[in-house]
Specification:
With 331 residues, the chain is α/β, with parallel strands linked by helices. The chain folds into two domains: 1-25 and 237-331, Helicase, Ruva Protein, domain 3 (Orthogonal Bundle), CATH 1.10.8.80; 33-223, P-loop containing nucleotide triphosphate hydrolases (Rossmann fold, 3-Layer(aba) Sandwich), CATH 3.40.50. It is 45% helix and 13% strand. It is built from 15 helices and nine strands. The strands form three sheets. Strands 2-5-8-1-9 form a five-stranded parallel β-sheet. The longest helix has 17 residues, at 267-283. The protein is globular.
Length: 331
């Protein structure tokens, strides 16, 4: 526990006693089977699975950056099946056009009118695979969809299905044939995580076990979309006491004052940190946020948003978060 947590908890509990949360709270127990089954597909990566679910429950979008072959696509496919969501995979390539994502209008000679044919973005869970292999123009086709949950084509706006969740994967930027995501699009992703190599025992089980695609095809939904929507609504009812919000603000304000970063965390990042902390608390079975919840999601929130002043210095998301936590004591 971070130094200073005990007085924080005392202040927090006093606040909860004075201002009880009477809104409906949906238990996280219904999502625990999702975590357990996903862990049988992505071996030894329960924390990454929990972070992905926290991002989804907080109504955000997830960016997974890692080497090819470590399970990025497998994680997205497993979550789609276990959550009962309609799923589309979009393989990004350098010759892809925005219409390949949004859709096109085709002239119908029988009616004499143009008929819209929706693209793969019209699904509840989108896997934008290797998103940084596409050009910036095509990458930007996702911006409106991710932010507004709608797309505009030829002057007409069309709503996307709910819930709407984008999992984008990208290869490390030093690899050949990649186009770095601009800051404006990186900021649209609530969280970025890495999966990493499996440990020895997990890899041994992987080598001796059933093919991942066979396991995924056998998965059955544990939730209905309506239940997922209720869980997302419950996240907003998880109580964050004023001292907790003080802590979030202190972390954000430190990044803005620090000479180590080109720019600090944006207000959107601050909201993302709070929403994800609430979601993490819900996954832990609590209806109130504690500092450890903020610290658990901080690497995923801050790592892709903070760029060091010295371009040659590249800290990992965990190192960045640990520097922040050392610099900012809990109130």
């Amino acid at each position: 526990m971070h130094h200073g947590t005990v007085p924080f908890i005392a202040k927090y509990n006093a606040d909860v006693h004075l201002q009880p949360n009477k809104r409906k709270f949906m238990s996280s127990s219904i999502i625990q089977p999702v975590i357990r089954e996903a862990s049988t597909v992505i071996l030894g990566k329960e924390r990454q699975i929990r972070l992905a679910l926290a991002c989804l429950l907080a109504r955000g979008h997830l960016l997974i950056e890692d080497l090819p072959g470590v399970g990025k696509t497998t994680l997205a496919q497993a979550l789609a099946r276990l959550l009962g969501l309609n799923f589309h995979r979009i393989q990004f390539t350098s010759d892809m056009l925005p219409a390949d994502i949004i859709g096109v209008s085709v002239y119908d000679r029988d009616t004499g009118e143009f008929k819209f044919h929706p693209g793969p973005v019209f699904a509840q869970l989108i896997l934008a695979d290797e998103v940084n292999r596409a050009t910036p123009k095509t990458q930007s086709a996702l911006l409106e969809a991710m932010e507004e949950h709608q797309v505009t084509m030829e002057g007409e706006t069309r709503r996307l299905p709910e819930p709407f969740f984008v999992i984008a994967t990208q290869n490390p930027s030093h690899q050949v044939g990649t186009f770095p995501l601009p800051e404006s699009q990186l900021d649209r992703f609530m969280m970025r995580i890495e999966i990493g190599y499996p440990d020895h025992d997990a890899e041994r089980a992987l080598l001796q076990g059933t093919e991942r695609r066979d396991i995924i095809s056998a998965l059955r939904p544990h939730l209905e979309p309506a239940e997922l929507a209720e869980l997302q609504a419950s996240v907003r009812t998880v109580h964050a006491a004023p001292p907790l919000i003080d802590y979030v603000q202190a972390l954000v304000e430190h990044t803005r004052r620090s000479p180590d970063y080109v720019t600090g965390l944006s207000p959107r990042a601050a909201l993302s940190l709070l929403h994800c902390a609430r979601a993490w608390a819900l996954l832990e079975g609590r209806d109130k946020v504690v500092p450890e919840d903020v610290q658990a999601v901080l690497p995923g929130i801050a790592g892709h948003r903070l760029r060091p002043v010295h371009d040659g210095v590249r800290s990992s998301a965990i190192d960045t978060a640990e520097d922040l936590m050392r610099s900012v004591p809990i109130p």
